[in-house]
């Protein structure tokens, strides 16, 4: 096998795992397939010592701090297939900047491939994503605290998110974009917190040049002025590598792992957003470290038992 560990994905989870494995003198390849999930965001918030850092700068520092660890290589490498081979894996793909075919073998693989967010197919959502359209109050609500906010969605999902966001602003409108499918109890809970409900269909979001939200335009022609809109966007896995190998997925499509971040496929691990749990950059980095320790100890056990 060429490498002890192939790490697929060079976001917070992947780079953090590479750092710990480099410090263990492991031969590691980090396959860097391109931008992270939060590429569109101006700042990563809540990351101890790096609060508000640009996403690209956080990763640049991550790459820079790998340099002393010469057993770690980082390659622009979009992994397309991952198959079992001998006591490890073979990964094939191509350079992420060009089409150069690439193939490597490794004793262990860590999937740190993240997720993508599926936004409503209406003008403005994609354009304002990460700035005027936000997914996570813990990441971004402080920046828009005490301002007029919208929370978009239907049913219990929008109710829970609106009640959560009401911690940061007392001026919230739930925008359901058509029938809200809200129970009488949900309506009562929202009303109690003075959160209003608008069930008119949305036509588009209108933003400013710097991608802040200004107005929500409805099918009846009305405009609602708001500083930001929160939503729980559905997500899908950035890569199908785990599913292609037959790894167990959760009902929500995340890669199932046990408490040691082991997937259901022997020698295959997963860390960061790709597995279930809260999704934050610092938590993904912590996962990467945890997975690296578990992998190093597993490799060591195999080596000592030869
Ligand atoms: C708009 C937005 C704003 C956010 N703001 C914050 C914030 O303020 N604070 C915070 O803590 N969190 C924030 N998050 C969440 C944060 O981005 C994620 O929790 C974090 O990026 C997860 O890290 P990760 O390493 O698991 O995945 P990612 O950072 O998404 O990295 C996964 C990497 O894997 C690569 N990859 C995927 N498939 C392949 C493949 N087949 N081959 C090679 N590489 C591949 C991708 O290109 C990507 O670089 C935000 C998310 C979004 C969407």
UniProtKB/TrEMBL annotation:
Keyword Ribonucleoprotein: no
Record SUPFAM superfamilies: FAD/NAD(P)-binding domain
Domain called FAD/NAD(P)-binding: residue spans: 3-287
Record's keyword terms, sorted: Flavoprotein, Oxidoreductase
Entry-linked Pfam families: Pyr_redox_2 (PF07992)
Top-rank taxon, per record: Bacteria
InterPro entries: FAD/NAD-bd_sf, FAD/NAD-binding_dom, Ferredoxin-NADP_redctase_2
Name of protein: Pyridine nucleotide-disulfide oxidoreductase
């Amino acid at each position: 096998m060429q490498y002890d560990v192939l790490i697929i994905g060079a976001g917070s989870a992947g780079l953090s795992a590479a750092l710990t494995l480099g410090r263990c003198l492991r031969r590691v390849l980090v396959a860097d397939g391109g931008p992270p999930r939060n590429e569109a965001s101006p700042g990563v918030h809540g990351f101890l010592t790096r609060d508000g850092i640009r996403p690209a700068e956080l990763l640049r520092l991550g790459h820079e701090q790998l340099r002393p660890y010469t057993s770690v290589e980082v390659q622009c490498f979009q992994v397309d297939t991952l198959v079992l081979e001998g006591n490890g894996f073979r990964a094939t793909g191509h350079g992420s900047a060009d089409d150069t075919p690439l193939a490597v073998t490794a004793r262990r693989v860590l999937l740190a491939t993240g997720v993508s967010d599926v936004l409503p197919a209406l003008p403005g959502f994609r354009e304002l994503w990460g700035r005027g359209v936000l997914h996570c109050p813990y990441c971004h609500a402080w920046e828009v605290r005490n301002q007029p906010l919208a929370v978009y969605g239907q049913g219990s999902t929008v109710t829970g998110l609106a009640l959560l966001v009401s911690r940061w602003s007392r001026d919230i409108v739930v925008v359901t974009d058509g029938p809200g499918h809200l129970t009488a109890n949900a309506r009562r809970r929202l009303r109690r917190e003075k959160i209003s409900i608008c069930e008119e269909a949305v036509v588009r979001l209108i933003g400013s040049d710097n991608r802040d939200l200004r107005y929500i335009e409805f099918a009846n022609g009305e405009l609602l002025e708001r500083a930001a809109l929160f939503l729980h966007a559905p997500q899908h896995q950035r890569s199908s590598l785990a599913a292609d190998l037959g790894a167990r997925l959760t009902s929500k499509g995340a890669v199932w792992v046990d408490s040691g971040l082991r997937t259901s496929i022997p020698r295959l691990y997963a860390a960061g957003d790709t597995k279930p749990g809260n999704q934050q950059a610092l938590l993904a980095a912590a996962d990467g470290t945890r997975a690296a320790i578990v992998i190093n100890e597993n490799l060591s056990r195999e080596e000592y038992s030869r």
